[in-house]
């Protein structure tokens, strides 16, 4: 069974993005799609980016543990708010912290906003950054408009049927990419042997 890490990237008080991350964890677990865990950047509270992990002389145990969780995940869902058309510094901080860990990693983007467009403006900038890091951004995305009205604090959607249908389509695409990467890794090993 694949393992999917969910990065909850908002560190604000009253954050709606975390509610969406909670929804995905619950949905993945209830449907037995993968094992999963949330990496909450509010709990990590990383310092401002100074240097990539591989160049740090004395990285913290917490930083190393975070990198290992990303490295060993079969896929990553990044749940991010849209702030003024971009993503938060907390997320930029951890994206830049790592490099090899992102290489060919299937990443699904979940964008969250209080407005009607669901954070779609942030997708382009985040996609570009992840492509530069050589990540594999999953083609299906999950924009969440009017988040405060559509999810409660526990991550329960107000329109459960519609939300779960969209989540299923999004996760099917992500799981396809995870399986494709697994098969390519096997094929590469066979060709090298």
Report what the structure shows.
- The structure is a single chain.
- This protein has 7 helices and 6 strands, in the order βαβααβαβαββαα.
- With 193 residues, the protein is an alpha/beta fold.
- The chain has a single domain (3-192), classed as Flavodoxin domain (Rossmann fold), CATH 3.40.50.
- Strands 1, 2, 3, 4, 5 and 6 form a 6-stranded parallel sheet that branches.
- The chain starts with a strand and ends with a helix.
- The mean pLDDT is 91.
- Pfam families: FMN_red.
- It comes from Pontibacter populi.
- This is NAD(P)H-dependent oxidoreductase.
Radius of gyration from CA coordinates: 16 Å
CATH topology descriptor: Rossmann fold
Note the run of SSEs as H and E. EHEHHEHEHEEHH
Largest sheet: 6 strands, parallel
Instruction: Kindly estimate the percentage of residues that lie in beta strands according to DSSP.
Output: 15-25%
Structural class: alpha/beta
Head-to-tail CA distance between termini? 26 Å
For the record, the CATH architecture stands as 3-Layer(aba) Sandwich
- Give the beta-strand count: 6
CATH superfamily: Flavodoxin domain
Share in helix: 40-55%
Name of the CATH first level: Alpha Beta
Shape descriptor? globular
Average pLDDT across residues?
Answer: 91
Low-confidence stretches: none
What is the helix tally?
Answer: 7
Instruction: Tally the structural domains.
Output: 1
Protein name: NAD(P)H-dependent oxidoreductase
Organism: Pontibacter populi
Domain NADPH-dependent FMN reductase-like: 3-148
InterPro entries: Flavoprotein-like_sf (IPR029039), FMN_Rdtase-like_dom (IPR005025), NAD(P)H-dep_reductase (IPR050712)
């Amino acid at each position: 069974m694949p393992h999917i890490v969910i990065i909850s990237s908002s560190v604000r008080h009253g954050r709606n993005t975390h509610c969406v991350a909670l929804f995905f964890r619950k949905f993945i677990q209830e449907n037995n799609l993968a094992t999963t865990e949330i990496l909450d950047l509010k709990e990590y509270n990383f310092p401002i980016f100074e240097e990539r992990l591989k160049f740090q002389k004395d990285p913290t145990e917490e930083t190393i543990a975070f990198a290992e969780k990303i490295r060993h995940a079969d896929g990553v869902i990044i749940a991010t708010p849209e702030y003024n058309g971009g993503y938060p510094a907390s997320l930029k901080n951890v994206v830049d912290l790592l490099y090899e860990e992102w290489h060919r990693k299937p990443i699904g983007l979940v964008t969250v906003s209080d407005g009607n467009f669901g954070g779609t403006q942030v997708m382009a900038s985040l996609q570009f950054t992840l492509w530069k890091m050589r990540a594999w951004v999953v083609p299906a995305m999950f924009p969440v408009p009017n988040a405060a009205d559509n999810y409660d604090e526990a991550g329960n959607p107000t329109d459960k049927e519609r939300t779960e249908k969209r989540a299923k389509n999004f996760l099917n695409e992500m799981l396809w990419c995870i399986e494709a990467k697994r098969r390519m890794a096997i094929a590469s090993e066979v060709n090298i042997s």
